[in-house]
Specification:
With 105 residues, this protein is mainly alpha-helical. Helices cover 68% and strands 0% of the residues. It is built from five helices and no strands. Helix 1 packs across helix 5. It is globular, with a radius of gyration of 13 Å. The termini are far apart.
């Protein structure tokens, strides 16, 4: 089980909300375009084996206390792991937009 404290939750919600509005503070547009242009059915993104990896990766990412430490965390990831985290991040953003009933941008 993953524990996220109030401050971590507030920060990640803020980042998700900013991304939902088109302001991407963590990922540059070129990487967003590159990763999200690849169809998910061509990869093992939604496999059971990947769930534990995604959960651990996202937990480690969220646990970083500042925006700068999150950016440094991203810089240290290998390409495959970075792409996995980016796709997971934007999957969450997209789902939150749908839940709020807002249009996709």
């Amino acid at each position: 089980m993953v524990y996220i404290d109030k401050d971590q939750l507030k920060q990640v919600e803020y980042l998700f909300n900013q991304s939902a509005q088109g302001l991407h503070l963590l990922f540059d547009n070129a990487n967003i375009r590159r990763v999200l242009s690849q169809p998910t059915e061509d990869m093992d993104f939604f496999t059971f084996e990947n769930v534990d990896r995604i959960q651990k990766l996202l937990s480690d990412f969220i646990a970083k206390e500042s925006l700068q430490s999150k950016l440094e965390f991203l810089e240290k990831l290998d390409q495959e792991t970075y792409d996995l985290l980016l796709r997971t991040y934007f999957n969450i953003v997209e789902n939150s937009i749908f839940e709020q009933g807002k249009l996709k941008h």
